[in-house]
Amino acid sequence: MMKRVNIAQLLADSSMLGQFYDDLDAGAVAIIPTDTLYGFAVAAHLPDAVARIYAIKNRDARKPLILFLTAIEQLAQNGFDASSDLLATLQKHWPGALTAILHKPENQHFCAFSFAKLGVRIPAHEQLLKLLTGYHHKLLTTSANRSGEPSDCDPDKLAAEFAGEIDWLIDGGVLKPSLPSTVADFTVTPPLILRQGALKL
User: Fold this and answer.
1) In CATH, what is the architecture of 3-195?
2) What is the pLDDT of residue 89?
């Protein structure tokens, strides 16, 4: 049964927040608000949870998910090899609608992720960053939609479509219409824009 809660109420209720984190650790799939679109989110260390997102979305298994961080310092802390030039570029655009494709480090936190490269983003959504900061693992995310269909900005519509398939809907209200994040591959020189989205690089 899906639990639906306003993000501000969740952050203010420590017991409910603890339940949310425990459920993520048990493999829950959540829909969360971001600075661009609503997204599915699961714990990055749980292969079964990651598989659930692919099943719900009907997503091509060759398409990776995006790792959410809360601070640029977490790149080094989690084993990402980022040059000072790259860090300077990311610093300009984070938090924000830029997903940076980087080489995936060897890290148990990301063991559910089977790709050599990993998209990373710090979303510009203050309440979401608070939610992410309190969680002791990392979240893998992707837009909350069926593959090939647009992502909805309205939590009521998302609840109607996905209530039987997800565990939590974190309600951030109706989001302003937005493009998804811009995706740039920083493992090549010069960086390659894979998807032109909300951020103009």
Assistant:
1) Alpha-Beta Complex (3.90)
2) 94
